[in-house]
Specification:
By secondary structure, the protein is mainly alpha-helical. It contains six helices and two strands; from the N terminus they run ααββαααα. It is globular.
Length: about 120
């Protein structure tokens, strides 16, 4: 486990929130987030949306730990607005698993393309 975080679970989330307030750069914040996610076997994650003119960039997130190949597929297929995870986070924010979210997704929802591509 990364020395930046000393546990997993709810305590790690609180510790992350407290430590994130003192981060001075996006790479520093990215590293801290990875230290929370890796012990949970989460190997890739995006952070935030960039809005306005910069949203048209290849990678419209503040940062991702995604493989470059996935960033390219994501951008080329215009998945940003279809991706159900950010849509769920913006609309509800209620915690649930990816598979549970997929189960409640309407059959014709564009978010299914993102999941199938992933």
């Amino acid at each position: 486990m990364n020395a930046a975080m000393n546990e997993t679970g709810p305590g790690a989330v609180i510790e992350f929130a407290l430590k994130s307030q003192s981060m001075k750069s996006i790479p520093e914040l990215s590293s801290l987030l990875q230290s929370v996610l890796l012990p949970l076997d989460i190997t890739a994650a995006p952070c935030g949306f960039i809005s306005g003119p910069r949203a048209a960039l290849l990678n419209p997130f503040h940062f991702t730990t995604w493989p470059e190949a996935w960033v390219k597929i994501y951008a080329e297929n215009d998945f940003l607005l279809a991706d159900l995870l950010p849509r769920w986070a913006r609309a509800s924010g209620r915690a649930l698993t990816w598979s549970a979210l997929f189960e409640i997704l309407p059959p014709r929802d564009a978010g299914r393309r993102v999941i199938q591509a992933a």
